[in-house]
């Protein structure tokens, strides 16, 4: 363990001069300050300068606020991602429905075309039968 011995040299003229109240305390604080030791508002001896301590406390509070805001931001972004995923699924479902409807319409169109060809073939067959019947009646 290291011990720190603080000494101050006071000249006789300084001893006899009229001193302001608290002069010794101020001198002790100056000497301790030079050694890197400081008194806080409760007169407790501290290693850090009170300004540095205050800045550290403020930085700690700002960091806590920042972390809280980042947490809120992550919750908001998470909700947004879920919403976008849900919308993407709904869009995909609607897309599949549209593709199914389009394919159904194509199928119906092809069925109608095939039915039309069958009816035209039937009409042609009936016309030929009509002609045969007409010829048989004439003979």
List keywords for this structure.
single chain; 139 residues; mainly alpha; two-stranded antiparallel sheet; rod-shaped; disordered N terminus
Helices and strands, with pairings:
Elements: H1 12-16, H2 23-34, E1 38-39, E2 45-46, H3 50-138
Antiparallel strand pairs: 1-2
Quick take:
Keywords: Cell projection, Coiled coil. With 139 residues, the chain is an all-alpha fold.
Question: Could you explain how this protein is built, in words?
Answer:
- Keywords: Cell projection, Coiled coil.
- It comes from Pan paniscus.
- Pfam families: IFT20.
- This is Intraflagellar transport 20.
- With 139 residues, this protein is mainly alpha-helical.
- The protein has one domain.
- It is built from 3 helices and 2 strands; from the N terminus they run ααββα.
- It has a two-stranded antiparallel ribbon.
- A hairpin with a 5-residue loop joins strand 1 and strand 2.
- The protein is rod-shaped.
- The N and C termini lie far apart (142 Å).
Instruction: Report the sheet-strand fraction.
Output: under 5%
- Could you give the order of strands across the largest sheet? 1-2
Which regions are unreliable across 5 or more consecutive residues at pLDDT < 50? 1-18
Q: Tell me, briefly, the overall form.
A: rod-shaped
Tell me the Rg in angstroms.
Answer: 50 Å
**How would you classify the helix and strand content by structural class?**
mainly alpha
Q: What is the helix tally?
A: 3
Give the helix proportion (percent range).
Answer: over 70%
* Average pLDDT level: 82
Series of secondary-structure elements, N-terminal to C-terminal: HHEEH
C-alpha end-to-end distance: 142 Å
- Number of beta-strand segments: 2
Largest sheet: number of strands, sense, barrel closure = 2 strands, antiparallel
How many discrete domains?
1
């Amino acid at each position: 363990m290291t011990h720190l011995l603080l000494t101050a040299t006071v000249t006789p003229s300084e001893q006899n001069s009229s001193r302001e109240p608290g002069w010794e305390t101020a001198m002790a604080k100056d000497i301790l300050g030079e050694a890197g030791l400081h008194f806080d508002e409760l007169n407790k001896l501290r290693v850090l300068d009170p300004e540095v301590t205050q800045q550290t406390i403020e930085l700690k509070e700002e960091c806590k606020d920042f972390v809280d805001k980042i947490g809120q931001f992550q919750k908001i972004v998470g909700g947004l991602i879920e919403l976008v995923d849900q919308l993407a699924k709904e869009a995909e479902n609607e897309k599949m429905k549209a593709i199914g409807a389009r394919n159904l319409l194509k199928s119906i169109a092809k069925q109608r075309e095939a039915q039309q060809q069958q009816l035209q073939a039937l009409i042609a067959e009936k016309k030929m039968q009509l002609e045969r019947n007409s010829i048989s009646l004439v003979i």
